Amino acid sequence: MGGYNVRPGSVKFTHDVRKAPDRPRGGARAKVRMEPGRQICNDGQDGYFTPTVQDVYNNKSATVVQDWDMPVNDIPKEELITGTDPEGQVDDVTGTRSASISLGASSGGISGSVGYSSSVNFPGAELTDATTLATGEAEHQFKINKPSHNSSTNNAVFEVGSVAQWEPDCANDRRPTRRTMVIIDVDLQWGLDVPVGKWGDVISDNKSFSYVTTC
To answer: Between the CA of residue 34 and those of 38, 46, 79, 156, 190, what are the distances in Å?
Structure first.
Protein backbone atom coordinates (compact mmCIF):
# COMPACT_ATOMS: atom_id res chain seq x y z
CA MET A 1 0.00 0.00 0.00
CA GLY A 2 2.53 2.61 -1.09
CA GLY A 3 5.42 3.61 1.10
CA TYR A 4 3.29 3.99 4.20
CA ASN A 5 2.59 0.28 4.71
CA VAL A 6 -0.93 0.95 5.95
CA ARG A 7 -4.30 -0.21 4.72
CA PRO A 8 -6.33 2.62 3.15
CA GLY A 9 -9.77 1.63 4.45
CA SER A 10 -12.62 -0.83 4.19
CA VAL A 11 -15.62 -1.05 1.87
CA LYS A 12 -18.87 -3.05 1.86
CA PHE A 13 -21.01 -3.62 -1.23
CA THR A 14 -24.70 -4.54 -1.41
CA HIS A 15 -26.11 -5.21 -4.89
CA ASP A 16 -29.68 -5.88 -5.96
CA VAL A 17 -30.22 -7.02 -9.57
CA ARG A 18 -33.69 -7.83 -10.92
CA LYS A 19 -35.50 -8.48 -14.18
CA ALA A 20 -39.14 -7.85 -14.92
CA PRO A 21 -41.10 -11.12 -15.36
CA ASP A 22 -43.18 -9.95 -18.33
CA ARG A 23 -41.38 -6.89 -19.72
CA PRO A 24 -38.00 -6.52 -21.46
CA ARG A 25 -36.44 -4.72 -18.53
CA GLY A 26 -33.69 -5.27 -15.98
CA GLY A 27 -32.59 -3.15 -13.03
CA ALA A 28 -29.59 -2.89 -10.72
CA ARG A 29 -29.03 -1.10 -7.43
CA ALA A 30 -25.61 -0.80 -5.77
CA LYS A 31 -25.00 0.39 -2.23
CA VAL A 32 -21.44 1.27 -1.23
CA ARG A 33 -20.25 1.83 2.36
CA MET A 34 -16.73 3.28 2.63
CA GLU A 35 -14.87 3.34 5.95
CA PRO A 36 -11.64 5.36 6.18
CA GLY A 37 -8.47 3.73 7.48
CA ARG A 38 -8.05 6.63 9.93
CA GLN A 39 -11.33 5.76 11.63
CA ILE A 40 -10.55 2.05 11.73
CA CYS A 41 -7.12 2.78 13.20
CA ASN A 42 -8.60 5.06 15.87
CA ASP A 43 -10.96 2.25 16.85
CA GLY A 44 -8.02 0.04 17.78
CA GLN A 45 -7.52 -2.00 14.62
CA ASP A 46 -3.72 -1.99 14.57
CA GLY A 47 -3.48 -3.44 11.07
CA TYR A 48 -4.50 -0.08 9.61
CA PHE A 49 -1.37 1.84 10.69
CA THR A 50 2.25 1.28 11.62
CA PRO A 51 3.93 2.32 14.89
CA THR A 52 6.27 4.71 13.06
CA VAL A 53 3.77 6.26 10.64
CA GLN A 54 0.57 7.62 12.17
CA ASP A 55 -0.85 9.00 8.92
CA VAL A 56 -3.68 6.81 7.68
CA TYR A 57 -6.10 7.22 4.81
CA ASN A 58 -9.41 9.03 4.39
CA ASN A 59 -12.23 8.26 1.94
CA LYS A 60 -11.67 10.14 -1.34
CA SER A 61 -13.87 8.89 -4.21
CA ALA A 62 -15.67 6.03 -5.90
CA THR A 63 -16.98 5.36 -9.40
CA VAL A 64 -19.73 2.79 -10.02
CA VAL A 65 -20.37 1.53 -13.57
CA GLN A 66 -23.33 -0.76 -14.34
CA ASP A 67 -22.63 -2.27 -17.78
CA TRP A 68 -25.70 -3.62 -19.60
CA ASP A 69 -23.99 -4.05 -22.98
CA MET A 70 -23.73 -7.85 -22.85
CA PRO A 71 -23.27 -10.10 -25.94
CA VAL A 72 -26.53 -11.92 -25.26
CA ASN A 73 -28.58 -8.73 -25.03
CA ASP A 74 -30.38 -8.20 -28.35
CA ILE A 75 -30.98 -4.47 -27.80
CA PRO A 76 -28.56 -1.98 -29.46
CA LYS A 77 -26.31 -0.53 -26.79
CA GLU A 78 -27.31 3.07 -27.50
CA GLU A 79 -30.91 2.13 -26.63
CA LEU A 80 -30.22 0.11 -23.48
CA ILE A 81 -30.38 2.56 -20.58
CA THR A 82 -33.93 3.70 -19.76
CA GLY A 83 -33.34 5.25 -16.32
CA THR A 84 -30.72 6.15 -13.73
CA ASP A 85 -30.84 7.19 -10.10
CA PRO A 86 -29.80 9.69 -9.07
CA GLU A 87 -30.03 11.73 -12.24
CA GLY A 88 -27.84 14.80 -12.47
CA GLN A 89 -25.91 15.75 -9.34
CA VAL A 90 -26.68 15.35 -5.65
CA ASP A 91 -24.78 17.25 -2.93
CA ASP A 92 -24.45 17.03 0.85
CA VAL A 93 -26.90 14.24 1.65
CA THR A 94 -27.18 13.76 5.41
CA GLY A 95 -30.37 11.78 5.94
CA THR A 96 -32.78 9.21 4.59
CA ARG A 97 -33.27 9.19 0.84
CA SER A 98 -35.96 7.16 -0.90
CA ALA A 99 -35.92 6.21 -4.56
CA SER A 100 -37.52 3.73 -6.92
CA ILE A 101 -36.94 3.10 -10.61
CA SER A 102 -39.80 1.39 -12.41
CA LEU A 103 -39.06 -1.72 -14.45
CA GLY A 104 -42.26 -1.20 -16.42
CA ALA A 105 -42.21 -0.67 -20.18
CA SER A 106 -43.10 2.72 -21.60
CA SER A 107 -46.34 1.33 -23.04
CA GLY A 108 -47.74 1.18 -19.52
CA GLY A 109 -47.84 -1.06 -16.48
CA ILE A 110 -45.29 -1.68 -13.77
CA SER A 111 -43.51 -5.01 -13.48
CA GLY A 112 -41.60 -4.28 -10.30
CA SER A 113 -38.92 -1.79 -9.36
CA VAL A 114 -35.41 -1.35 -8.09
CA GLY A 115 -35.99 0.75 -5.01
CA TYR A 116 -34.69 1.55 -1.56
CA SER A 117 -35.23 3.71 1.49
CA SER A 118 -32.30 3.91 3.84
CA SER A 119 -29.91 6.22 5.62
CA VAL A 120 -27.52 7.64 3.02
CA ASN A 121 -24.81 9.85 4.44
CA PHE A 122 -22.24 11.87 2.50
CA PRO A 123 -21.94 15.44 3.83
CA GLY A 124 -19.26 17.49 2.09
CA ALA A 125 -19.40 15.30 -1.02
CA GLU A 126 -21.19 15.06 -4.35
CA LEU A 127 -22.70 12.20 -6.31
CA THR A 128 -22.83 12.81 -10.06
CA ASP A 129 -24.66 10.95 -12.81
CA ALA A 130 -21.93 10.67 -15.48
CA THR A 131 -23.90 8.30 -17.72
CA THR A 132 -23.51 8.57 -21.49
CA LEU A 133 -26.54 6.75 -22.86
CA ALA A 134 -24.83 5.68 -26.11
CA THR A 135 -22.36 3.49 -24.19
CA GLY A 136 -24.97 1.15 -22.69
CA GLU A 137 -23.37 1.77 -19.28
CA ALA A 138 -24.74 3.69 -16.31
CA GLU A 139 -21.97 5.56 -14.49
CA HIS A 140 -22.07 7.41 -11.17
CA GLN A 141 -19.15 9.28 -9.63
CA PHE A 142 -18.87 9.89 -5.89
CA LYS A 143 -16.36 12.57 -4.91
CA ILE A 144 -15.44 14.08 -1.54
CA ASN A 145 -14.53 17.74 -1.83
CA LYS A 146 -11.84 17.98 0.87
CA PRO A 147 -9.98 15.38 2.98
CA SER A 148 -11.22 17.12 6.15
CA HIS A 149 -14.95 16.80 5.34
CA ASN A 150 -17.12 14.43 7.36
CA SER A 151 -17.58 11.92 4.54
CA SER A 152 -13.80 11.64 4.28
CA THR A 153 -13.01 11.10 7.96
CA ASN A 154 -16.15 9.07 8.77
CA ASN A 155 -18.34 6.50 7.01
CA ALA A 156 -19.63 7.50 3.57
CA VAL A 157 -22.68 5.57 2.32
CA PHE A 158 -24.34 6.06 -1.04
CA GLU A 159 -26.64 4.16 -3.41
CA VAL A 160 -27.01 4.29 -7.18
CA GLY A 161 -29.23 2.46 -9.64
CA SER A 162 -30.09 1.98 -13.29
CA VAL A 163 -32.70 0.30 -15.47
CA ALA A 164 -32.04 -1.03 -18.97
CA GLN A 165 -33.84 -2.89 -21.68
CA TRP A 166 -33.08 -6.61 -21.36
CA GLU A 167 -34.10 -8.87 -24.23
CA PRO A 168 -31.67 -11.78 -24.53
CA ASP A 169 -31.15 -13.60 -27.82
CA CYS A 170 -31.56 -17.24 -26.82
CA ALA A 171 -32.43 -18.63 -30.24
CA ASN A 172 -29.34 -20.88 -30.41
CA ASP A 173 -29.69 -22.23 -26.87
CA ARG A 174 -31.07 -25.76 -27.00
CA ARG A 175 -31.33 -25.95 -23.23
CA PRO A 176 -31.36 -23.39 -20.39
CA THR A 177 -28.05 -21.54 -20.28
CA ARG A 178 -26.70 -19.12 -17.68
CA ARG A 179 -25.88 -15.78 -19.28
CA THR A 180 -24.34 -12.62 -17.88
CA MET A 181 -27.01 -9.94 -17.43
CA VAL A 182 -24.99 -7.01 -16.08
CA ILE A 183 -21.48 -6.32 -14.83
CA ILE A 184 -20.93 -3.84 -11.99
CA ASP A 185 -17.45 -2.30 -11.69
CA VAL A 186 -16.45 -0.15 -8.71
CA ASP A 187 -13.27 1.95 -8.57
CA LEU A 188 -12.33 3.25 -5.12
CA GLN A 189 -9.82 5.79 -3.81
CA TRP A 190 -8.52 6.71 -0.37
CA GLY A 191 -6.02 9.52 0.24
CA LEU A 192 -3.89 11.18 2.88
CA ASP A 193 -4.86 14.54 4.36
CA VAL A 194 -1.74 16.68 4.01
CA PRO A 195 -1.34 19.83 6.17
CA VAL A 196 -2.37 22.27 3.42
CA GLY A 197 -5.82 20.65 3.20
CA LYS A 198 -5.21 18.87 -0.07
CA TRP A 199 -5.00 15.20 -0.99
CA GLY A 200 -1.63 13.55 -0.52
CA ASP A 201 -0.69 9.98 -1.43
CA VAL A 202 -3.69 8.23 -3.04
CA ILE A 203 -4.38 4.48 -2.97
CA SER A 204 -6.77 2.93 -5.50
CA ASP A 205 -8.63 -0.37 -5.57
CA ASN A 206 -11.31 -1.83 -7.81
CA LYS A 207 -13.89 -4.59 -7.64
CA SER A 208 -16.00 -6.24 -10.33
CA PHE A 209 -19.26 -8.19 -9.94
CA SER A 210 -21.02 -10.27 -12.62
CA TYR A 211 -24.69 -11.22 -12.40
CA VAL A 212 -26.12 -14.05 -14.44
CA THR A 213 -29.60 -15.31 -15.24
CA THR A 214 -31.01 -18.27 -17.10
CA CYS A 215 -31.55 -17.74 -20.81
So the answer is: 12, 18, 33, 5, 9
Are 50 and 7 in contact by the 8 Å Cβ rule? The answer is no
Model-level pTM? 0.87
**Residue 41: closest CA among 55, 31, 60, 26:** 55
Contact 147, 165 (CB under 8 A): no
Per-position pLDDT tens, the chain of length 215:
344 567 899 999 999 898 887 778 888 989 999 999 989 988 888 777 766 666 789 999 999 999 999 999 999 999 999 989 888 888 887 766 666 666 654 444 444 556 555 557 788 899 999 999 999 999 999 999 888 888 999 999 888 999 999 998 877 777 778 889 999 999 999 998 877 767 888 999 999 999 998 87
Cβ(30)–Cβ(64) below 8 Å:
yes
How many CA atoms are closer than 13 Å to the CA of 90, on its beta-carbon side? 20
Going along the chain from its start, the domains and CATH numbers come out as 2-214 (2.70.240)
User: CB atoms < 10 A from the CB of 127, how many?
Assistant: 22
Cβ atoms within 10 A of the Cβ of 109, count? 12
Nearest-angstrom CA–CA distance, 145 and 127: 11
